[in-house]
Amino acid sequence: SVLLNGKVLVNGGRTGNIYLNSAELYDPATGTWTTAPSMNIARSQHTSTVLSTGNVLVSGGRNSNIYLNSAELYDPATGTWTTIETMHIARIKHAASVLSNGKVLVSGGHHKNIGYLNSAELYDPKTQKWTNAGNMMTAREDHTSSLLSDGKVLITGGYTNGDTYLNSAELYDPATGTWTVTGNMNTGRWGHGTSVLLNGKVLVNGGRTGNIYLNSAELYDPATGTWATGPSMNIARSEHISTILSTGNVLVSGGYVGTGYISSAELYVYEIEAS
Q: For the whole model, what pTM was predicted?
């Protein structure tokens, strides 16, 4: 998570069978890492979301075979972690987005007993409480969640029922608290990257369908609710990072392909491809 002060917080995860509660801070100004205070609970497959207050909300995930509904807040000013009210449902591989009103929408994921989830909930930083946010049209995990310029949230892809790789997309409207279907992507994918471009369109890139790793990309137009094919990446990759830069370009870095992890990066040039 990129903090408001420009530093990057890395927290949790796992090394082999060891689940981590440790955290570290990267300072781009010096290029150095420092140890940060540890989370209260070790977890992997959680979400980490920077709030408008500057605090970081960590929710869900798993610790070995225990699926977590717990949540905690990191305060960069004090360097402390505080346990807050639990989510209504324990979930892993979910998605989270900060809404225009400062609340956080958590959607989908997987529950140990229920299976794939279509439920969603809202976290309010002012009250530190969770409330239900209705159900998505489709249960899904390993999907993406993007805040659009009109305040709605676009949910894309993921997978459900084991080997069903989703090309479906849907919209959450915070003003009405409702979910609606929007146009399908051209390709079902999970582990993909998403970035909201300066023109309001959404770039989806990479991911995988089954054992096929993708280099394809597509663009969602909120004005029409339709998808158009974008230029393919140079390298197929999944579970990578897709970052919108101040120039409007998108930096795609790292990820995984069937033969191993990827260290390369490439740039989607917004001025040429999307303006």
A: 0.93
